[in-house]
Amino acid sequence: MFFSFFYSLPLEYESISLYFYSLFLHIKVCDSINIQELFLKIREDRLKLIRQIIKTSRVRSQEELLERLESYGYSITQATLSRDLKLLKVGKMAEGDSGYYYILPGDDETELANNFVQDFVRGFKGIDFSANIAVIRTLPGHANSVALALDTFELEHILGTVVGDDTVIVVLREGASPEAFLSELSLKIPSIKD
């Protein structure tokens, strides 16, 4: 049936919708087919596939995602993919020296927490204290990832962080000891006590 053939075509409805609309009118397949609903269904399926790809693998670029979509029969432009990613509220997560990869909002909290722990451990070199200030040394370029992890952990003893390229300054709350901070941090990152 023509409808199933049409549905299986790789297409980008924004750019060729008029062509298919005129084709439908020309051959008069069925007056009850709502072309707009069909295009929305195709877009919904594409968005589901994008979610699945991002959840199951680390996609690092739009080009990589476009290639994967093509392998499933979806041929779309980079502009359409950008709109889809914006609609899905896709973000990027730092992956140390490897750059970034896409993540979905509200991804499994445990997985996100694990990513922050990995970012912290990957960049962490050492820690020193002076009164209520902790100075965390990181590999060059890793301070942002380490500070973001600390901020995301929402540790009770942290008042705030200041970031350089290879250093994170952690200001501890009044009365918080280095030992109390390390104890709280070790609940998130057990290897910190080593």
Key attributes of the depicted protein:
6 strands, two-stranded antiparallel ribbon, four-stranded antiparallel beta sheet, 194 residues, alpha+beta
Strand order within the widest sheet? 3-4-6-5
Number of strands: 6
In the predicted model, the low-confidence regions spanning at least 5 consecutive residues are 1-15, 26-32
Distance between the termini: 66 Å
Give the number of helices.
Answer: 8
Residues in β-strands, percent: 15-25%
Q: How does the overall form come out from the CA principal axes? A: elongated
How many strands, what sense, and barrel or not for the largest sheet?
A: 4 strands, antiparallel
What is the string of helix and strand elements? HHHHHEEHEEHEEH
C-alpha-based Rg, rounded: 24 Å
Which class of secondary structure composition applies to the elements? alpha+beta
> How much helical structure, as a percent, in the residues?
40-55%
What integer is the average pLDDT? 80
